[in-house]
Amino acid sequence: MRKIYPLLAVIGIIFLYFISIFSEPTEIELKDLWKYEGKEVVVEGIVKNKAGDVIEISDGNATGKIYCEGCDEIEYGDQIKARGKVGEYGEELIIYVEKVDILEKWKENAISLPYLAENYEKYVGMNVNVTGYIYSKYTGYFYLSDEYMDYKIRVYYNETIPFEKYERVCVKALFFYNPKNCNFYLKICQPFHGVECYDD
Amino acid sequence: MEWNAMMIDFILIVSFAAAGAFIGAVTGIIPGLHTNNIAILLLAILSAAGIGIYLCILIVAAAISHTFLDIIPSTFIGAPEEDTALLVLPAHSMVLQGRGYEAICISALASLASVAVCFALLLPFRFVMEEPINFYEIIEKNMPWILICISAIVIFTNENIWKAILIFLLAGIFGMVIIDLNTSFLIQSSPIFPALAGLFGAPALLYAEKKILPEQNLEAEEIRVKKRDIGGGVMAGGIVAILPGVSSAIASTLALALKRERSNEAIVAILSATNTATNFFVLASLFIILKARSGFAIVMREFINVEKWSGFLIPYPYNLLLIAVIVSSTISYFLTKHIGKFVAKNISRISYRRLIRISISIILIMVFLFTGFLGLLIFGVASLIGITCLEMKVRRSVCMGVLLLPLILNYFL
ipTM of the assembly? Predict the structure, then answer.
């Protein structure tokens, strides 16, 4: 037997091993998850939902789930990049995460009220950091508006805010849609939510 | 009026099934091209067309037809796919004996017979896999042990066990290294194609002893296949089709591992029956356990609302898809024989040396088109392992370690 063949095969496997170390898995869109069952992939998306270790993310076209143990620092609205193997989780597919990076915390990404209004689909059910102006104040809620008063949104907050009308603020809250009266609203309901003075 | 509507519906079903059979014939003949690619293409182009059920009929017909026709490139040019990898050597050996057309006829008949057996076993399959027996859960829980048993049989049925273990580990480690590599080039594809083409295809061509290709015998009138070969293939296909991540190649290995007699004809019959049965039961699994075990089944789930088959009666639209299976397998049987005869008739006009060169060129072009330079590298390394296997006189099925070892480790790690 020519010993050169197994020797070359071993060298080839070692070479491919080094390629596999340095090559990143395929970065895929969430809608293509099913094509990669059993494979390692990279996905990117915004956190839409969290239930224990299962996190639902959306990339704008589709949603997908990732299984991430000990990912407590990830919050609704964070933009994350996850790498892991696609596998079954009950009846659906999930990515069992090996590595996850938070690309942008939802708090760091301040958006204006008009932007939120025009891109509402992207943010419904998520933490948002919205900049705007105090329009009016009531017990249990206040209204936030843009500088030209074209857009207005109700913000539910049980505490009294130390800001006056037309003061520019940042509101960190959950963004909801109420189908019963076809209204969007913001709700300050978590310890990390709140209203702060807008600081350029 | 209602009768007319039914007739139109029936004609549409048969037409889409026939179209699917021809599409499957094309994907079957072109090495490396899979029905899943066509299904994904249909999903991308026609998902909003509102003809979901007819597209599913087309996809099912193509998936069945593909398993009939993919014997042709495996036999004549030694270019295998996952389900025909183990078939290359016996089928190509028959070509070198002037019996290439006979191999094609055996394969076509075995596939057709396996469809008939699958239909006969469909109802028992439904009750065994789901309530009341729930055999699916038993298999799923014990799958790593089943895979270990298959590996043990594959290794220990060799004369020199140590050499077989060495090849199994070499192929297995190779499989673990390449399994997650991103090899998609012109179309989305996996590294499995160049790996299997290298492990099974290239060595079969390079080590073929004869230098002259004999005239192929085109009179294959008395073709027969053994019932137990078909039964074994169907059983293996049925077990493997329901499990996640376990491909038809494992079904082939399982079917072959349990077979004592190793004549070329028997191997061709068993593996052809296994391949067709695997796709048949992948479709059945979609409706019985609501799990999509192949790309084509996943695409179908996007097109139609899949409802669980819980009683005796076959639910809609599964009944229509079974009609597509019948139409497609009948057309595919004749297509396989017809195309196989055409190829067999013309192939002996080419000198064998030239045929080898053409075959290897086709494999290399396909590997490059689907998987790029990385695919060529994988093909090269896989060929070296395949040649080492032949040089050590170890059975080729041992090279299935490329899929078995990563799969086993995936369960334990």
Answer: 0.73
